[in-house]
Amino acid sequence: MIKLLKFLKPYRNYVIVSLILIFFQSISELYLPNLMSDIVDIGIVKGDIRYILQKGEIMLLVAAGGTVSAIVASYLSSQAAMGFGKILRNKIFSQVENFSLQEFDKFGTASLITRTTNDVNQIQMVIMITLRMVARAPLICIGGIILAVSKDARLSLILLITVPILAFLVFVLYKKAMPLFDAIQKKIDRVNLILRENLTGIRVIRAFNKIEYEKKRFNEANIDLTNMSIKVNRIMAWLMPAMMLLLNFTIIAVIWFGGIRIDKGTMQVGDLMAFIQYIIQIMFSLIMVSVVFVMLPRASASALRINEVLEIVPKIKEPEKPEEIKNIRGVIEFKDVTFSYPGADEPALKNISFKAEPGKLTAIIGGTGSGKSTVLNLIMRFYDADSGSILIDGVDIKLLPQTKLRDMIGYVPQKAVLFSGTIADNIRFGKNDAADEQIRKAACIAQATEFIFQMKDEFNSEISQGGKNLSGGQKQRLAIARAVVKRPKIYLFDDCFSALDFKTDAKVRAALREETKDATVIVVAQRVATIMDADQIIVLQKGEIAGIGTHKQLLNTCQIYREIVLSQLSGEELI
Ligand code: ADP
Ligand code: MG
């Protein structure tokens, strides 16, 4: 929690001014009972109306001053707390943006969302309340005690009994509630997770008639969260009544003993009234502190969760001494690369070595799960290889700044991802300053114009969230256009042709061949027809290279390749 307070720094002035104002507010609150006691003891007892009015005016002024201070202080402390939340959310967001995929897998999307929203809210709230209450409470408490003792020291002894009881109460509740708060945040994670899965998987859920099942699953998580919250609130519900009871008993005791003292003539009525006010103020300030104490555990549970995110040092680091490639050619070389996904038993890639050269088409083929996408993930440096090295133009990619590396590459993922915005926006994602003409050309190469021109606003047609209003093949073609508009030295196509029909597939490849003449192209494919004319074909089998060569060579030398081919092509197509 303390660690996070550094994000409050930009609002330092707000905090200081609001603390000063709270000081004035507290002084005015403490001064009022004193004035009242004078009115009673001097004004009323002697029947001096002028004195009463005079003191009354001062009371009004003091009260007004206190109120204005309180309002401005509230305003400033809210500003500071909300600003703090803003900064913290930004920090978490940019930290998460730097995560490698390993770290993403570790937290999970749902939890990262809760941490950025709900957890930040918890802390924000505590900061606001703390600023307002905690600064005020000690002032009022100490000031109140001094003034109460000065009015009547013996009567103040009552506090010696009530304050320890109050402290004990708070301590017990704190102990009981603390462990539950962390549990609540975890349950919120779970509700978010199920909600997210349902929102993104709604088609599948409908198709498999799992609505009732999912409803039940959500309901269970929801009830779980509700029960836990009720449990916590049941404990917390004790706090206020117990404190009020204690406060009222204290007042009864004060009136009882005070009455006796007034009878004896050792105390005046006005003093007793002021005394009661002081006791109320002292007790209330302690109650305020305990409210904060009760909120603290929840906020510190949240702070822990946020710190977990902020403290991750992304595994993929920027090089200390970055190297630069002057004239990028785009030669990619794998040297004995082995890589396992975190937590996996088997390496996804084992001792992979190959070289992909500019102006040549390198194809990777193999069954699902053979490690094809993983090869591309490593070139993109989404993950770092465990051993071996990957070189571009002879430079280890770990020595290249990540942005420089990715700038060289036009990457089309296996599953096309589009963003909300227009078609043109989505293609321009590949190159911010692309002119309309370039966008048109890229779309043309990707064979996307045909369906774009059928849309109402053509390139300015809106794409709904995630590209739901496009077919798989259409999305894939936009993703290809997005890579093409970049005009990179290296193209990585991850199985993106499988979503296209044979005719479009052939057309796209023909257009690409012209466009990517001088670039290094790596194509991952399922269909032999897609890659038959590649300069070199790498056959992957369970993370290992089963053969490298041209179509003809592999047909003669590689059993696995032959099997793949035979399962797809008829005899006369083979040659
Ligand atoms: P392909 O693209 O050839 O179908 P992948 O390269 O995607 O295969 O996957 C290779 C292997 O790595 C598979 O066994 C798969 O289960 C595993 N794998 C892929 N992605 C992850 C991941 N993020 N975490 C753990 N294992 C993964
Ligand atoms: Mg794949």
TrEMBL record:
Q: How does it sit in the membrane?
A: Multi-pass membrane protein
Single GO MF annotation: ATP hydrolysis activity
Keywords noted in UniProt: ATP-binding, Cell membrane, Membrane, Nucleotide-binding, Transmembrane, Transmembrane helix, Transport
Primary localization class, coarse: membrane
Where do the ABC transmembrane type-1 domain residues begin and end?
16-298
> Where does the record locate the signal sequence feature?
none
Q: What is this protein called?
A: ABC transporter related protein
